[in-house]
Amino acid sequence: MKTLCSHTPLPDKSATGPTVGDIFREYGPAFRSSNRLHPRQHKVMYDIEHCRRGEFGTHWEICDTCGHLKKGYNSCRNRHCPGCK
Ligand SMILES: [Zn+2]
Ligand SMILES: [Zn+2]
Question: What residues pair up with 58 in beta bridges, in sequence order?
Answer without folding.
Answer: 73
